[in-house]
Amino acid sequence: MFNKILIANRGEIACRVIKTARKMGIQTVAIYSDADKNALHVEMADEAIHIGPPPANQSYIVIDKVMDAIKQSGAQAVHPGYGFLSENAKFAEALEAAGVAFVGPPKGAIEKMGDKITSKKIAQEAGVSTVPGYMGLIEDAEEAVKISNEIGYPVMIKASAGGGGKGMRIAWNDDEAREGFQSSKNEAANSFGDDRIFIEKFVTQPRHIEIQVLCDAHGNGVWLNERECSIQRRNQKVVEEAPSPFLDPETRRAMGEQSLALAKAVGYASAGTVEFIVDGDKNFYFLEMNTRLQVEHPVTELITGVDLVEQMIRVANGEPLTIMQDDVKINGWAIENRLYAEDPYRNFLPSIGRLTRYNPPAEGPLGEGIVRNDTGVFEGGEISMFYDPMIAKLCTWAPTREAAIEVMRNALDSFEVEGIGHNLPFVAAVMDHPKFISGEMTTAFIAEEYPDGFEGVMLDDAHLRHVAAAAAAMNRVAEIRRTRVTGTLGNHERRVGTDWNVALQGVDFDVSIDADHDGATVRFADGQALRVEGDWTPGNSLARMTVEGAPLVLKVDKITQGFRLRTRGADLKVNVRSPRQAELARLMPEKLPPDTSKLLLCPMPGLIVKVDVEEGQEVQEGQALCTVEAMKMENILRAEKKGIVAKINAAAGDSLAVDDVIMEFE
């Protein structure tokens, strides 16, 4: 077995590989850019080597720099993680020439299947049903428009070397095909150093289901069931689960056997994933093969008990598989939610900054199941604008899908992240969405269910009353604490009343509290009584309560006359007042937000790539105004309505913060 492995990656996947290597008794080497000098993977590894400036195209994807780090460290093998150089045949070739083992497939398999154009041709030749498209290289935007018309809109414009949603656009007309071609080409060049583009028909209402395969260099191979990855945003997966709630055993077996046959046809040896789109009649079509470890591999590990990273290392060491197909079972259900540094209230735009609080739920047993959190960050660390915005993968396992969802709900409510915008409220909302609960989602889920973006969660009356009862009980605890402040005047004892008004989500509840040693009974004006018990001390940022025996986890911040409480994706300002305070509060005027209707504000920290208009120019609704790049993604900002540009405050190359004014309108 290898003595030392270099991990040619960063973030949570580098930390994930280090954990398995440590378990196997293998020393690890991290590489890092200037932006990552204090990163978690650098701290976890046995040694670390600096490889350059923050941009990936000057550090993590520069083969010569990675090869120099390998030479310095004396590593015998390299695990590439996902992204960066993980599907780069030239990198695999350089390692082979240097006598260093690649913890991944042979370079021939990467060349055949890692390139999406070539892989589709091979699949077609092998008789695999594929999505209609143009497999050749496309020279310019006008050729992209011509091909798109031949295929028929909508079309998917994709980077040949792409992955993780980078270099990918959907076009519904000629203008979007032109814009999408150029943006995809730019993103592909920046992220992968390869700007080749191809186009295929965009199949509406599909499911995205993928099969995990594992092969060795001795001709052995197994398929390790499927993962449902249909909940995606901007073609990037957000929620994954294993198994799929849609497949039956016959379809699962057919997809698995076809995936394994395809892998063996190209001499595959390592862990890999064959992706399919599946229609409502369970017809499946080959999409692509990812010749690397997938982001969502933990859900497969949780239902099979197979450590995929360990198996990859053993295969790279020349060992035969010890797992037979009959050994592969489906044990329970696993769900993964990706925690992104993206603000759901700003249309999921990237958010960067310092993690002033990062407190994930404890890994291990929770309720009926288990919690696992794969992460690459820590409290006080920085979220950089240079890399992918995913900072953690929260996974839960339980014997059934329903139980796994419930464990996930409580784990999400317990996950504390402050200092940046993040998508925890959104994924919490998904876990309660009827379409997700039923398992009847497609890749159009987010577009269909949140067409105007995510605007938060409105709790139903029953859940709202539970939160109101908990807030009233918590307020009583805080009031008692305030009566015990030392240094008060004599004969000025403060009494804690029993009658209160709780206002939240636009609703007022008049309640009375009957407290005892174990908790409190909160009675509503309509006669309903709820028993509240739990563990919360004033100043704590997390409250673990039960209301009528049902668990209720709340993130807590103190505000004037109440709390800011967050649970199940809802962000609630909860005022707990005496009846007289509530009466007076209703008379207070409401402060209106400033008018920004004539300003174009920068929606995220980023770099202005180009400005498409000039001062004095008339613009139409939907017209492109400028392009902002952040976290390797280009975002085109468009006019919301017809108007005239009065002033432009930024130019190409400028770095802007959130809400900086880019341009003003008459």
Outline the structure in words.
27% of the residues lie in helices and 34% in strands. Strand 4 (77-79), helix 4 and strand 5 (101-102) form a beta-alpha-beta unit. Helix 7 (141-151) packs across helix 8. The mean pLDDT is 92.
Structural features:
single chain; 666 residues; alpha+beta; nine-stranded antiparallel β-sheet; eight-stranded antiparallel barrel; 17 helices
Q: If strands are numbered along the chain, what order do they take across the biggest sheet?
A: 14-13-10-11-12-15-23-21-20
Instruction: Quote the average pLDDT.
Output: 92
Query: Structural class per helix/strand content?
Result: alpha+beta
The residue ranges in which pLDDT falls below 50 over 5 or more consecutive positions are none
Q: Report the portion of residues in β strands.
A: 25-35%
Computed over alpha carbons, the radius of gyration is: 27 Å
Topology (SSEs and partners):
Layout: E1 4-7, H1 11-23, E2 27-33, H2 40-44, E3 47-52, H3 63-73, E4 77-79, H4 89-97, E5 101-102, H5 107-114, H6 116-125, E6 133-134, H7 141-151, E7 155-163, E8 166-171, H8 174-192, E9 197-201, E10 207-215, E11 221-233, E12 236-242, H9 249-265, E13 270-278, E14 284-290, H10 297-304, H11 308-316, E15 333-340, E16 342-343, E17 349-350, E18 353-354, E19 357-359, E20 364-366, E21 369-375, E22 382-383, E23 390-398, H12 401-414, E24 416-418, H13 424-431, H14 434-438, H15 445-449, H16 461-483, E25 499-504, E26 507-516, E27 519-524, E28 529-535, E29 542-547, E30 550-559, E31 562-567, E32 570-577, H17 579-585, E33 599-601, E34 606-611, E35 618-619, E36 624-630, E37 633-638, E38 643-648, E39 655-656, E40 661-665
Parallel strand pairs: 1-2, 1-4, 2-3, 4-5
Antiparallel strand pairs: 6-9, 7-8, 7-9, 10-11, 10-13, 11-12, 12-15, 13-14, 15-23, 16-17, 18-22, 19-24, 20-21, 21-23, 25-26, 25-32, 26-27, 27-28, 28-29, 29-30, 30-31, 31-32, 33-40, 34-36, 34-39, 35-38, 36-37, 38-40
Helix pairs in contact: 4-5, 5-6, 7-8, 12-13
